[in-house]
Design a protein that fits this description.
This protein has 7 helices and 7 strands, in the order βαβαβαβαβαβααβ. The chain is an alpha/beta fold. The relative contact order is 0.15.
């Protein structure tokens, strides 16, 4: 008699998840997906008023969520808050920023702002969550929201590309170090995703047409497109996946 294989579940019941950049866009969609799969949420964003509004929306939807108003650029304060609130089984590192401009015009201040959030902040949030897991001997899944620009270059995106390539690098290194402890570390790499923060990009119709020509599926992304990839990496369905990138780019990087 043929026995069917046991398939890992996408459910996250009993798991605690920390989501940065959770008040909008990809972070909000990822948090929603995790909560609907049963995870206990802690939402992180800089704006306390917006964060409280989002947490209230989760509660009204029957998905209770705690919140931490934090600027992940403040390394010490963020690490201490995570230490006190943790440990967390799942991290979604979605906080980020961008200042797109020609490489010849980049200033040190612009460089430091992008790197301070996208690289420095992301690195130390990942470290802080992993420290909590290591202290308690628990496995976990740590997910950094990177970008297709962590794999290719782009016009006016030298600093952004540098930050995301660096995220890809530290993700692989952490995965190697922490794998023996059962801590998985991966990235999700979206293409252009339409959110409130990226709306200005889509005002230039010629630029939008160039984007669509590069995306083989012929459309830009939505936050929901990314949320499914996050749920997969957060769950036991990806139990043997670490140190890699899940590209949600509509085929942009296939060429």
């Amino acid at each position: 008699m043929t026995e069917l294989p046991v398939i890992p579940t996408f459910r996250l019941d009993g798991k605690r998840a920390l989501v940065t950049g959770a008040s909008s866009g990809i972070g909000l969609a990822a948090a929603t997906a995790l909560a609907q799969a049963g995870a206990e949420l802690t939402l992180v964003a800089r704006n306390p008023d917006r964060l409280a509004e989002v947490a209230d929306a989760f509660t009204k939807a029957g998905l209770p969520a705690e919140s931490l108003a934090l600027d992940i650029g403040d390394i010490d304060a963020t690490a201490e808050a995570i230490r006190q609130a943790g440990p967390f089984d799942i991290l979604v590192n979605s906080a980020g920023c961008a200042r797109h401009q020609p490489a010849l015009e980049v200033t040190a201040d612009a460089f430091d702002q992008v790197m301070g959030v996208n690289l420095r902040g992301a690195f130390f949030v990942t470290q802080a969550v992993a420290q909590g897991l290591a202290r308690t001997g628990r496995p976990g899944s740590l997910i950094n929201i990177s970008s297709q620009m962590g794999h290719v270059g782009g016009y006016d995106r030298a600093v952004y590309c540098a930050s995301k390539h660096a995220v890809e690098g530290f993700t692989k290194a952490m995965a190697i170090e922490w794998g023996p402890s059962g801590i998985r570390v991966n990235t999700v790499c979206p293409t252009f995703v339409r959110t409130a923060l990226t709306e200005s990009t889509f005002q230039d119709l010629e630029h939008v047409e160039r984007i669509r020509e590069k995306i083989k599926l012929g459309r830009v992304g939505t936050p929901g497109d990314v949320a499914g990839a996050v749920l997969y990496l957060a769950s036991e369905a990806s139990a043997l996946v670490t140190g890699t990138s899940l590209l949600v780019d509509g085929g942009w990087t296939a060429e």
